């Protein structure tokens, strides 16, 4: 099951599948997205 399909699950089904509450999972995603953007930020010669 992908992330898009998991959005349609109820909170109880989501927790059973992922073993983490949806709110905590959303926080983890936001941290990962921020870290990914920082790591892959376009650099360049200054």
Provide an overview of this structure.
This protein starts with a helix and ends in a 7-residue tail after the last helix. It contains 3 helices and no strands. It is mainly alpha-helical and 46 residues long. The longest helix has 18 residues, at 22-39. The relative contact order is 0.10.
What are the salient characteristics of this protein?
single chain, 46 residues, mainly alpha, 0% strand
Q: Helix count, per DSSP?
A: 3
Q: Percentage of helical residues?
A: 55-70%
Q: Could you tell me how far the N terminus lies from the C terminus, measured between alpha carbons in angstroms?
A: 44 Å
Quantity of strands, as a count: 0
Mean pLDDT: 91
Note poorly predicted spans. Answer: none
The best one-word shape is elongated
Largest sheet: none
Structural class: mainly alpha
- C-alpha Rg, in Å? 15 Å
What share of the residues does DSSP label as strand, in percent? under 5%
List the secondary-structure elements in sequence, H or E.
Answer: HHH
Organism: Streptococcus pneumoniae
Protein name: IS5/IS1182 family transposase
